[in-house]
Design a protein that fits this description.
This protein has 104 residues and is mainly α. The chain has one domain (2-103). It has 4 helices and no strands. The chain has helices at residues 2-22, 29-49, 55-76, 84-103. The longest helix is centred in the middle third of the chain and has 22 residues, at 55-76. The chain is flat, with a radius of gyration of 14 Å. Keywords: Cell membrane, Membrane, Transmembrane, Transmembrane helix, Transport. The chain crosses the membrane at residues 31-50, 57-76, 82-103. Belongs to the drug/metabolite transporter (DMT) superfamily. Small multidrug resistance (SMR) (TC 2.A.7.1) family. This is Multidrug efflux SMR transporter.
Length: 104
């Protein structure tokens, strides 16, 4: 159960990071509200997962999921450019997250 909550919290990390960028320095209310809600839920989920999982592993998985999805979202929405190196590095990050889960 902790892994499911951790993955969901990692997804919410990507949501709040993207909403933060969309808020334009907290000047746009809807993305700002989404940022705050996703941030709080993401942190609560991470804290809950850390009750059962090692802190370092939980944090690395949370950041890895959030970072990967944030970059992928930026590529899909054409805010960042896709390149072979960028895609390979995202895949390496995802593989590392899977590896951490496998050895935990």
């Amino acid at each position: 159960m902790s892994w499911i909550i951790l993955v969901a919290s990692g997804v919410l990390e990507a949501v709040w990071a993207s909403a933060l960028a969309a808020s334009k320095g907290f000047r746009r209310p809807r993305p700002t509200i989404l940022f705050v809600v996703a941030l709080v839920i993401s942190m609560v989920g991470l804290a809950f997962a850390m009750n059962d999982l090692p802190t370092g592993t939980a944090y690395a998985v949370w950041v890895g999921i959030g970072a990967s999805l944030t970059v992928l979202w930026a590529i899909v929405t054409r805010k960042e450019r896709a390149s072979t190196a960028r895609i390979l590095l995202i895949l390496l990050l995802v593989a590392s997250v899977i590896g951490l889960k496998a050895v935990s």
